[in-house]
Amino acid sequence: MRIVVALGGNALLQRGEKPDAVPQIEHVRAAAEALAPIAEQHELIVCHGNGPQVGMLALESENDPALARPYPLDALVAQTQGMIGYWLAQCLRNAGVTKPVLSIVTQTLVDPEDPAFRTPTKFIGSVYDPWTARQLAELHGWTIAPDGERWRRVVPSPEPQRIIEQDSITQLLRHGAVVVCGGGGGAPVTADATGGLHGVEAVVDKDSTAAMLAIAVHADRLLVLTDVPAVLADFGTPQQTPLRSIGLDELAGRHFAAGSMGPKIAACGRFVAVTGGQAAIGALDDAAAVLNGAAGTAITGGVANHG
Amino acid sequence: MRIVVALGGNALLQRGEKPDAVPQIEHVRAAAEALAPIAEQHELIVCHGNGPQVGMLALESENDPALARPYPLDALVAQTQGMIGYWLAQCLRNAGVTKPVLSIVTQTLVDPEDPAFRTPTKFIGSVYDPWTARQLAELHGWTIAPDGERWRRVVPSPEPQRIIEQDSITQLLRHGAVVVCGGGGGAPVTADATGGLHGVEAVVDKDSTAAMLAIAVHADRLLVLTDVPAVLADFGTPQQTPLRSIGLDELAGRHFAAGSMGPKIAACGRFVAVTGGQAAIGALDDAAAVLNGAAGTAITGGVANHG
Lengths: 307, 307
Fold this sequence. Notes:
The structure is a homodimer.
Chain A: E1 2-7, H1 21-41, E2 43-48, H2 51-62, H3 73-94, E3 101-103, E4 107-109, E5 122-128, H4 130-140, E6 143-147, E7 150-155, E8 162-163, H5 166-174, E9 178-180, E10 187-191, E11 197-199, H6 206-216, E12 221-226, E13 232-233, E14 241-242, E15 245-247, H7 248-251, H8 261-275, E16 278-283, H9 287-291, E17 297-300
Parallel strand pairs in A: 1-2, 1-12, 2-9, 3-9, 4-10, 12-16, 15-17
Antiparallel strand pairs in A: 4-8, 5-7, 6-7, 10-11, 13-14, 16-17
């Protein structure tokens, strides 16, 4: 089978942990051990998140007194692709993957007319008191928005249209490589009238990129692996229960949006609707069980099974 | 022909320039325009330097109050591979390269017994007064050394033994891709007794990595492109003259070491001696002319021509 895994950035650096290298490498090692058996038996693409990592690098760049301006987001996303891609390739190999593992720096094409550019919604970087947030917004030209009681920078999160390196990625898979790509959703670029590519100040949702790539490479499965074991029905209530599956027919009716689960379910739904393939959401530690349906929540084209 | 180009990090950010993104993208664009005709006509691997970039990221990491420890050099080198690899891939395409361009995050195997680990010599990051340098050395466990009248951190620069992703790189070339790899010499790793790979605190010279890779992939040419038009005989004297060629027989006898020219000449000499191929050193802007022998300094296996 050809499988695309979307690996949560928070699975690589958990809330409350310092953004040091050592704990991240430990998490990447655990992720690689969970994915290694899948990589050996199947064709595997790994797309990873980068939320905490790009936030750290953005903050370092803002505070660097040597710079006239902080680095743009496309360049920072590319930095995280280098670092996390390096760790993943190394750890997959160390976890026993005998195939070549290649981390590809990836550009994701987005539409300059995407409404996300008019309404930035994706939080990035630190939280600030309202006064500091306004000062920083003025200094750097940021859009800011409240995140709970404090304020943060928000950036556009346009829909991915195409991964520029897509054909080469497919070719690498065919030749037996494991491919790490689309990290942090890919470095966002737009095309000008002559086809020239230019980075833009945005971040692309990595689950959306993974779903788009899974459709493009004709994957059989999309696995969205995170730090929770399943999608919960009635999330946040005393009645919350893990779902074994969600049918496409249910996606519109239910409200799963709490936290970051909404976009994950939507990405899986898109893949299932377009390809008729299977998608699932579950815990990284349960990767093999999520793949074979013994754990996690399946998103299916058919009638849901809430058994 | 199969060609490996080593692209100087200083060609991407010149001395005295602020390490901002904008001037670097301009330099990458110029580099891509010089390399595009070669990429279209030949099989091309581009290895780029990262001195100024890894120095900037190291300093940002040292000064990041959120971190318990600064990031290790292997992870920082990988970050620069992501960023510069992204810029190069994008700009090569924008400069008219119709082949796919892939930037590969690269690991370079080094020997843990390399004498460089006992005697670090490679300067990295900022210059400091002696007192500050000693404080930082104590804080971070650095080795420091004088650089002119001021002091800097020095790190080991071991010889590259092998690029872990080498076989896939050859395969990509065969399938018509332009490959950007070995950035900053590659993220340095050592292998343990079971073959597991682990990052180390070191940087590998990118010209050495390019020469080693050129030998491994059976390249026909190695081009070391930098910001000077040729190797100078009697460098720094009123008699200094550009050399059209240097024969292998002359490498031992002459003294070219001033600046960073010594390692470039040595890398070219190694490639020529092992493969019988041709190597040349010259200005990035003259890339096509350096390739066909009309500019730059050729390092040849035969008798030198100082015409």
